[in-house]
Specification:
Structural class of chain B: mainly alpha
Distance between the termini of chain B: 25 Å
Helix content of chain B: over 70%
Number of strands of chain A: 12
Strand content of chain A: 35-45%
Number of strands of chain B: 0
Oligomer: heterodimer
Order of helices and strands of chain A: HEEEEEEEEEHEEE
Chain lengths: ~190, ~375
């Protein structure tokens, strides 16, 4: 093979490999959004801000703060993944009931497992609460709309539709404002 | 490279008039100089800068979150740009415009990274951001290997550093997994054999190594970094010829070792005060600081002498700069507490004057007057 054919092949492989990685991320997400179990969690959008990636709203969840005593087994390190089991209460709200470093097997329809990460060291005290992030805390909005969402939050009840797959991965499907789906995320 | 050409041109004229170089020889040297391609011409630099700016353009486009298009259309646009970059690289390689082709490859890498960010934005993904940077770095490394692209390799090293710093800021751990990734990239650097990327390999390792003391043992273990730096410098000094038989690197290794040791000592003295002071009394801690400062200055002086004796210009300037930084910081930190200003300047002046005298003697010994007369 001459050298110009070789470089063509090399560049094609680079482009193909990088395309495959990007396609992999998209396919994974679409699969999660399409086939994942859907739960609805109340949210409070806080401080919209501009970052490199654009304007987004930080979503704060009530399940984002977990009592430390729920942990069973070894303490997860900083930024290590662990699993939070949520249980549906009588009023329909999801509450954290158990935390573990390994993926627990939960089959009850009233329970769902979410993969989370803690930004701080796990605290041992029985009254402490741990801040947990599930990877669903950022909601990107078109430029200039972050403020609007924040204003809405002051008078209305906001919730997020979340898709959860069998491995605990979560993705935002859309936002619900006063019970009405307002921001619907198309798959593609 | 033109500075080198100018310099040779100046010397050549001088040697020609002195009759040491024949007219024929001089013109042969000039032809050779002209035929050598400069690796740092203006065109490749502008091309690479263009590629970087192009990357920023794509990223701010992403940041604007263009809602007018469907996700599929946005993905299509990004992938088309990605393939466009590599397609352009193919055309440029075929036209023998290698420098521009590498800039196009770099553009492709930038679009790849921007695409990762855009997809994360489209699907409101958070995950662990450093993982995305690692994914980007690996894509850049692949391009560096397959296209034998030095700019792509340079981008890989920069991304690896971003990755490890970000990861550490989240986990507060030593982040050992940086090492295999770095070793892979460093292996590619050796294989491609481009000098600047070998320096980048060293610099990125230093960027990982230098703060390591904060993350291991008692979280103030900077002495390990100092020991590693000193060991590298001593090994480079002792085994210099043996190393240079394989790869011309002992001079650079010496300079890097010296720099690593100095920064480690600097952190111990002025940045992470707990590492030497602990819960000591103030007077005792000042004594320790001064002891460490004397040790630092001694190491720097030893480094300077070695560098002078072995014509290691990089290490010499580094040691000069480190010496100045050390003295200056010491002055600022101890001013008004222990050392009287004038006394301090007197001490510093004496040291530097002695240094100048010693350097002069060394220089005289190395170049006897009759040879130096030219």
């Amino acid at each position: 093979m001459n050298s110009s054919r070789k470089i063509l092949l090399a560049l094609a492989i680079i482009a193909l490999a990088q395309t495959a990685v990007l396609a992999g991320i998209v396919i994974d997400r679409v699969r999660l959004l399409q086939s994942g179990r859907e739960i609805v969690l109340p949210i409070i959008p806080v401080d919209p801000r501009d970052l490199f990636r654009g304007e987004y709203v930080r979503l704060s969840y009530s399940v984002g703060s977990v009592p430390s005593r729920l942990l069973e087994g070894p303490k997860p390190g900083r930024n290590d993944a662990f699993y939070v089991v949520l249980e549906k209460a009588a009023d329909g709200a999801w509450q954290p009931v158990k935390v573990s470093a390994a993926m627990p097997a939960e089959t009850s329809p009233d329970r769902v497992v979410l993969k989370g990460r803690a930004l701080h060291e796990w605290m041992q005290s029985p009254t402490a609460r741990q801040l947990v992030r599930y990877g669903i805390e950022s909601y990107f909005v078109p430029e200039g709309q972050g403020k609007r969402l924040e204003d809405l939050a002051r008078e209305k009840k906001l919730a997020a539709r979340i898709a959860v797959d069998g491995r605990g991965n979560a993705a935002i499907k859309g936002l619900i404002i006063d019970g009405v789906v307002q921001y619907e995320e198309p798959l593609l | 490279m033109s500075w080198y050409r100018n310099r040779v041109e100046r010397d050549l004229t001088r040697w020609q008039t002195a009759g040491w170089v024949s007219d024929q020889g001089a013109s042969a040297i000039r032809t050779d100089l002209r035929s050598r391609q400069s690796p740092f011409g203006a065109a490749p630099i502008f091309a690479v800068l263009g590629a970087v700016l192009f990357g920023f353009a794509v990223m701010s486009f992403v940041a604007a979150h263009w809602t007018g298009m469907s996700k599929l259309a946005r993905l299509g646009l990004l992938l088309a740009t990605l393939w466009g970059c590599y397609g352009a690289a193919a055309v440029l390689f075929q036209r023998q415009l290698a420098a521009f082709a590498h800039a196009a490859v770099l553009g492709g890498i930038a679009v790849y990274g921007a695409s990762i960010m855009l997809i994360a934005q489209m699907y409101h993904m958070e995950g662990s951001p450093p993982d995305a940077v690692l994914m980007w770095a690996l894509g850049a490394l692949l391009a560096a290997v397959l296209a034998r692209s030095n700019p792509a390799l340079a981008a890989t090293f920069v991304l690896l550093v971003v990755w490890t710093w970000w990861e550490r800021s989240l986990t507060h751990g030593p982040h050992w997994s940086f090492l295999p990734a770095w070793a892979a990239a460093a292996g590619v650097a050796v294989w491609l054999g481009w000098r600047p990327s070998l320096h980048l390999a060293a610099l990125s390792l230093v960027a990982w190594l230098e703060p390591l003391g904060y993350f291991i043992l008692d979280h103030h273990a900077h002495w390990i970094i100092v020991a590693i730096g000193a060991a590298v410098a001593i090994a480079a000094a002792v085994a210099g010829p043996a190393i240079d038989r394989h790869i011309q690197a002992s001079a650079a290794l010496f300079a890097y070792g010296l720099a690593v040791a100095f920064v480690g000592l600097y952190v111990m003295q002025f940045l992470d005060r707990y590492s030497i002071f602990g819960s000591q009394q103030y007077s005792e801690s000042i004594q320790r600081l001064l002891l460490l400062a004397v040790f630092t200055l001694a190491i720097l002086l030893a480094g300077m002498f070695w560098a002078l004796a072995h014509d290691n210009r990089g290490a010499l300037w580094l040691a000069y700069a480190a010496f100045a930084i050390e003295i200056f910081t010491l002055y600022v930190r101890t001013f008004g507490t222990l050392l009287n200003t004038s006394l301090f300047f007197l001490v510093a002046a004496t040291i530097v004057s002695l240094l100048a005298w010693a350097a002069y003697r060394l220089h005289q010994r190395k170049t006897p007057p009759q040879e130096a007369a030219v």
